[in-house]
Each structure stands twice: as C-alpha cells, then as structure tokens.
Design a protein that fits this description.
Blueprint: H1 3-25, E1 48-50, E2 56-58, E3 66-72, H2 79-97, H3 99-102, E4 105-111, H4 119-127, E5 134-136, H5 140-149, E6 154-156, E7 167-169, E8 173-176, E9 182-185, H6 192-202
Parallel strand pairs: 3-4, 4-5
Antiparallel strand pairs: 1-2, 3-8, 6-7, 8-9
Helix pairs in contact: 2-6
Length: 204
C-alpha cells in the first residue's frame, strides 16, 4: 500500500471515531418537550405574590427562565425541608456538568401558610437551603388563587392550646419551561441524583 492510500484509510478510520466521541460528549438525546409528562397540562398561570423583600412578584417576571416550583410552609417539620434539600442538592449536581443551563433555572418556594410565613420568615427558611431559592408569600386570597392555578392542595390543621397548628398539603416539585409551560415533576422522593438526571433530560 502506498503512503497516500495509507493516509486516506487512516482518515476514514478516524472519522467514525471522532463522530462517536462527539456523540458521547453531548450526552443522551433529549426527548422533545411536547413529549414531556406534563406537556399540555393546565398547571400554572399568572400570579402576583410578595417576595422576600416585601415587593410584588409575578409569574411573568420569570419569563425566559426555567422554573422549579414548590408549595410548602416554613414551619413544616419534615416533608418540606426534605424535598427542598433534595431539590437544591439536585440543582447543585446538575450545575457541575451544565453550568450555563443551570444559571437559567429559578427555584421558587411558595408558602401555603401566609398567616405565619411573612417575607422575613420565608427569607430565613429559603436561605437555609440555597441562596438561589426565592421565597414568596402573600395574602390568603393570593395564595389560594396561586395554589389552585398550580393544582396544589392544602388545608390548615387544628389549632392546639398554644396556638400552634400544622398544614396538610400536596408535595409536588414542578419544572416549567421558559414560557411558563409545565414540563415534568422532579422526583425528589428518589434523591438529589434523580432530580439532577430529570433536569438533564428536559432543560435545554
């Protein structure tokens, strides 16, 4: 075999290897967003609530951002802290491999206990999990409207002699696309790694 033929064959051999390496580096193919579990679902919608600084915050303020939304309350003894911790850890894991995309994700906590969860209380609560986690509160009427729009159930429990009470509520962590459309529910029950994997599947 002459030198020219040998060089040509080596180039042809290197081509599929290069293509394979490029395919591996880009990770698994992402399914179309119209195939997402919550695609087309009537979940979400505009609201005006109160931010940690006491200023109004609307759903439309997050246009262009992927949004992770969770409804809970600051005095929750177990479920809310567990879900938020796993979500925050999942976002951290995701950011290690997708720093640019991770910067486009806004995690949001909305209280279902506005009676006790003032902006200051919500701020202290969310800061315990992540500086990026934004806490929102509002009037009972505003919270009720937001919860209804996002398909969230909640109810106030019995008040004891000391005035303390619990809140019963659904614990769903939603992912929305930059247009505010529902995409999927993050598997916080499966841990931070599962949350990161689900983000990698849909965020683009």
């Amino acid at each position: 075999m002459n030198r020219r033929a040998m060089v040509t064959n080596l180039k042809l051999l290197a081509l599929p290897l290069a293509l394979l390496a490029a395919a591996c580096s880009s990770g698994p193919a992402q399914p179309p967003l119209d195939q997402a579990p919550l695609a087309g679902a009537a979940i979400g919608g505009d609201f005006t609530l109160t931010g940690e600084d006491g200023k109004p915050v609307s759903w439309t303020d997050f246009k262009g951002k992927w949004r992770v939304v969770y409804f809970g309350f600051a005095y929750c003894p177990d479920i809310c802290p567990t879900d938020l911790q796993r979500t925050s850890q999942g976002l951290t894991l995701y950011a290690r491999d997708h720093a640019g995309l991770a910067a486009s994700i806004q995690p949001i906590f909305i209280t279902i206990d506005p009676e006790r969860d003032t902006p200051a209380v919500v701020a202290e609560f969310t800061d315990a999990f992540s500086k990026d986690l934004l806490g929102l509160t509002g009037s009972p009427e505003q919270i009720a409207a937001a919860a209804k729009a996002f398909g969230v159930y909640y109810a106030k429990g019995e008040v004891n002699d000391q005035g303390a009470y619990m809140m019963d509520h659904s614990n769903v962590t939603y992912l929305f696309d930059p247009q505010g459309n529902p995409v999927t529910m993050l598997p916080t029950d499966q841990g931070a790694e599962a949350v990161a994997a689900e983000l990698a599947k849909w965020v683009r």
